[in-house]
Amino acid sequence: MRLFNQLSIRKKLTLAIISTSIATLLLPAGAILSYEMIQLRKTAAQELATDSEIIAANSAAAIAFQDHAAAEEILSALKARSYLEKAVLFDASGDRFAEYDAEPENAHSGHPELRSQPAELRFEKGFIVLSLPIRLGEDTVGSLSVLANLRHHYERLWVCLAVLATAMFAAVFVAVLLSIKFQRVISDPILSLAHLANKVTIDKDYSLRAKIENQDEVGTLVSGFNEMLAVIEARDRELNLSEERFRQLAESINQVFWMSDLEKTSVLYLSPGYEKIWGRSRESMLRSPSDWMDAIHPDDRERIRTAVVEKQKAGTYDEEFRIIRPDGSVRWIRDRAFPIYCSKGNVYRLAGLAEDITQRKLLEKQVLEISDREQSRLGQDLHDGLCQHLVRIGFASNLLCEDLATQCHPGTARAQQIAQLVDESITQARNLARGLYPVKLETEGLQSALAELALTSGASTEVHCEEEPNAKEKFRPIDYSVAVHLYRIAHEAVMNALKHSKAKRIRISFSQGHNHLSLTISDDGVGFGPEPSSGMGLHLMKYRARMIGADFQVESAPGKGAKIHCRLKSQERIPSVETSFAL
Amino acid sequence: MEFLRKVFAASVILGAASLLGTGFCTAAETNAVPEFKLKATFIYNFAKLTQWPNDAFQSRTSPLKIAVIGNDYLSHFLEEAVTNRTLNDRPLVVLHLKRPSEATNCHLLYISKSEKDALPGILSKIKGQPVLTVSDIDQFAISGGMIGLSQDSGELRFIINQRIAAESRLKFSSKLLNLAISPNEKERWP
Fold first, then answer.
1. Is the pTM of this model over 0.80?
2. What one-character DSSP code corresponds to residue A326?
3. Could B179 and A70 be called an inter-chain contact, meaning their C-beta atoms sit closer than 8 Å?
């Protein structure tokens, strides 16, 4: 059956027609042969019975009168019957009386044995054995047993078989000729359709159409096929356009569009931007889905790995990290991920967009630096210019007050008031200048600057600085730019606490270990919820922390104060931000 | 009484032959048993293959009488051969005739060799009557008898004188005629 299934439809049809013809012919042929076989036996038996009865009748008197010669003479008449092999006359007592043997020299080893027995007809070993009693009047005087071959009848059967076979071959030949002609009516449209389907498969040309020749089921099939091709063509065109648009989008944007399975074991799509931004081949990413993560800066990798697991499926993944390209250069990346839901509403894929934000980082840094620089300049100008000028006015005011007091001038009180206002102005200007330009940061370091910040911000503010006891080596001096950012973070946090938290106590903790710096500003104020109040303050702190590669965490709850924690790993492992922006 | 006497005589002969052996009876007598039996069978078969005229019988079921003159032994075997048998619904009866004058009252008459001298008288007595005559007397068929039994190469054969039979309105089956030997050359009848 498997071989049959592999044949072409034309051969199948031809074979089916021929098989049907043969089966149709075989059944009547078998019936005819069976009938012939039955008739053969019947005819043979009748023929033998007739001959035997004649012999029996003729030999009855011979047996009755014990005339062996006469009996044998009667039996010898059987020579005319070529099908008779042997005949034996038995007398009434069952003894052999006379015998005829067509071929006496043959031993008849395979022939059935002839015995005296009552009437019997049996087919045995391809022979017929007939026994019948011999009667004379009312008496049974003996019996006759005859053995006949069926050669003659079998010859007839063979002739019949040959005729049937010839008729069958002729019929099959005619069936083949007819099948070749008629099967084309069915097979040609199907083969034409199959050829077209093959062409469509190979050439992907869905504009081809099959010709409808018949209005039967095949015609319906061809019509259906054409309709299907039309639908596919339209869909293909739409798909191609869609793909073209997507490809243009994916290839032209300076971003990496990616799609993976939920387990992140295989990458389903990765836009060419990956090669541009990561500097690695797409093939390596497709081979090893963790290729992109291998390039992440060691300090960021663990954070990103955790975020991938915890946030991507939830749709909250929006991370910025650094990657190290194969040439050693560092790039800042912003990576976002979005869960994709299947029809049942379950997440089954993840898509994402990664963009190179190095330039933006550089600009932000520059803006921040310019801002810092301007603040410093303003603070310096305020300290060196306005503050000195106010000091001089203060001195002059004090001298004027003393002179007016000596003269008991009525405007003395007014003058003293002015002198006091000038003093207050001097204090305010100095505080303002210190906020804008922390002089001690440059001259005495971060700890002193933080102490001054606590001192100037209010009596309730305290600074706790410590060194970890197990830090045996002397600390490396803190990079100035890092110190500036940390100071600004502390300053912003303190200012926020003073302005908004209604805190009674603000604590600035700074610790320096062997391979880390830790800055914590906490207060006992009103705190805030998960969505902090609007304003640039918190974002700026976060941004500054990110600029120096520090972890930035905010812990707060309404009524439970706030805690801002900034932790920086060993500076030695941190590539200089300046360096990274120098790309 | 006649029957019992015959049975007794046959029993004596058979019993003597089997019990006392050849010392008591002659070889000829011993061989005579199958011969009588065979002759009795022959006579029975002659009756079967012979057609009598209808007026030979009083009715359709009148018995066919087989008579034996001389030789009581044969009549015994004849009786044995025809016991419980009929021919065309006619019972068979075996008669033992003492006198040839009784010969007219039968359908088949066996004349034993012992009656050789009385043969002409017997034949003339039944001449023209539908009585089938059978005998083993030499030249019987030629001497006016119908079926003469003779030994041919040790086998019992018979000669038919169809002319005499025809005169007595008797017809023989072709089967019987085919087996008969010619009266002169002892050849098969044509």
1. no
2. T
3. yes
